Every structure is written in C-alpha cells, then in structure tokens.
C-alpha cells in the first residue's frame, strides 16, 4: 500500500518535471526566435501590435503609437485620433491627411473614429476629420 503511494508520488513528480521542462524549452525557443527575427517579422507575429498611422500612413513599430483619445460609449466608443509621432504635432514634413475626404487635417483638428469592440479584437473605423465629419451633438 505504502509502495503504491510512493510510486504514484514519484511518477506524478516526474510528470510535473517533464511538463516544466517542456514549458521552459518552449519559452526559450520562442525567445530565441524573436531575438533573431527581423523587426518586421516580430511585429507581424504580434497580432495587432503593428499599426499604420491612419493620417499619414507611416508604419509604427515598438513604442511609437498613434496619439488618440478614447471616449467610452454604448454600444460603440468614439475616438479622437491626433496622429502618430511622425505627423503629430503637425509639421511641414509629414502632413495629416483625412482618410475620408482626402483633405489635410487642420493643425488644431483631428480625425474622429468609431470603435467597435468585438471579442478578441477591436476595430477602429474612421468616420472623418473635424472638417468633414460633424459629430451628432444634441
Ligand atoms: Zn501619422
Ligand atoms: Zn475629412
């Protein structure tokens, strides 16, 4: 009886150790993969991490993000998008172009987008800029 329990405990421990080993091997393998891969592959692997600025079309990597303000609402939230580090604050080199009316967004303007929250992902749909989209205010 005691031997039976011992065998159970030992085999259980072995299974746990094997699982831990597998886990660590997998982790170190992943670390190695991302370490050697190029920047593009890395961002492509991270779903949703790779973004393109909706105003100037610049590819944004790493900590470069589109500056936006989220206004939570129901059923959908609204978002004011100011631009990425390349085009905001507005400069003469990279202009912010509204993806809806194709006009240059004024320096003090922004783009308005609707945010659809779906399980697992968030979809941002640009409605227009301060020039072409008028928010329905009561
Ligand atoms: Zn931009
Ligand atoms: Zn517009």
What descriptors fit this protein?
138 residues; alpha+beta; 4-stranded antiparallel beta sheet; two-stranded antiparallel ribbon; 2 helices; 6 strands; 30% helix; binds zinc ion
Overview of the structural elements:
- By secondary structure, the protein is an alpha+beta fold.
- The chain has a domain of 94 residues.
- Helices cover 30% and strands 24% of the residues.
- Strands 3-4-5-6 form a four-stranded antiparallel beta sheet, with no helix packed on it. A two-stranded antiparallel ribbon has the order 1-2.
- Strand 3 and strand 4 form a beta hairpin.
- The longest helix is centred in the first third of the chain and has 35 residues.
- The chain is elongated, with a radius of gyration of 25 Å.
- About 12% of the residues have low confidence.
- One zinc ion (ZN) binds next to loops.
- The site of one zinc ion has 8 residues, from loops.
């Amino acid at each position: 009886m005691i031997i039976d329990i011992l065998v159970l405990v030992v085999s259980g421990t072995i299974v746990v150790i094997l699982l831990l080993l597998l886990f660590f091997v997998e982790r170190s393998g992943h670390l190695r993969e991302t370490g050697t891969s190029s920047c593009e592959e890395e961002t492509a692997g991270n779903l949703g991490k790779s973004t393109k600025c909706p105003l100037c079309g610049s590819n944004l990597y790493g900590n470069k993000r589109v500056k936006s303000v989220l206004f939570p609402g129901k059923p959908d939230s609204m978002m004011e998008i100011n631009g990425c580090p390349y085009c905001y604050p507005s400069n003469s080199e990279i202009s912010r172009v509204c993806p809806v009316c194709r006009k240059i967004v004024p320096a003090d303007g922004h783009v308005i987008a609707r945010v659809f929250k779906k399980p697992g992902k968030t979809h941002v749909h640009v409605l227009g800029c301060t020039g072409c989209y008028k928010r329905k205010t009561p």
